[in-house]
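Onboarding guide, step 5: your first structure request.
Type a short instruction followed by the sequence, for example:

Predict the 3D structure of this protein.
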Amino acid sequence: MSKSMSLLWAALLICMTACKKEQAIQDSKLSPATTARKATSPLLKSIEYGTDWSGTVQIAIVSSYVTGTELELDVKVPDGYALIGGGAVASPLVAASSAFLTAAYPDKDFTTWHAASAYHLNTYVHTLFGYAIGLKVAGMTKEELTASMWLFTNTSGIAAHPATAVTIDNDYTLIGGGARVESEGNLLVYSYPYNSTWFVASKDHEYSAPSAIEAYGLGIKTGVLEQHSLEVVRDSIANFTTNGIGTASIFTDTTWVAGSPGALATYNGAGRMLDGIAPHVQDATVTSKDLDHPDSGTTAVYILKIRKKK
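The system replies with structure tokens like these:
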């Protein structure tokens, strides 16, 4: 995908999220329950379906949203699908935004994706979109698929800028992962795959707020992938920005499904934090930004794309 197309995609994403701002504020006034820390009744639910070239790998991405200032959202995949990943977006993505991600991780039930966001320094009503990615493999039941999967976790020590990683066992292939920041005031900086390891980190910003962070890695038995002639390949792209909003989008051809996304924001000064990890069937977009202090850095997006071997 050309740089111009990536920039066009980023511009469309910014426009779409900004257009929701007025409605999001109205929703927060009309529905006090949505400003609670835990959202039990999402305002919207939609499903996007797709397959690889063969129809063997079937993906369903469920999305929903809730509006407030400090938000948590649980999203479940459809019946018959096994959870392999997900995402979260704090919207609208505008220069004045002070909302960032604090969690985007899978549940051990292989059904539920957890997302969380919070304003930082400046009270900010925003909308949290949560995404849950479900996998179905032709010729396998959900029970057979989840019996071949395992959720690996690891938790860091408490620090201002905590970081850790989780490596899956040798007989598994990494198929997804996520991160959860344990304390308020600490914000997600990266959550991404590399080989058989999922790396995570977060940071405080402008005031001391030490925390631990937990890394999650979803593994599927390599033997099961081989039995069904499936392949999982990591792909990524990164863009540099001098300040403000940073965006990176990645696309895959129609022989694949994009699978689980990952995200990274680097910084050179006060900090840049993640405010969006948006998955789709054949693409994903990651967004980051600075806050109060302009800072440069790289925004990177990752996917663990899946297909039947050709």
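Each response can be followed by summary notes, for example: The radius of gyration is 18 Å.
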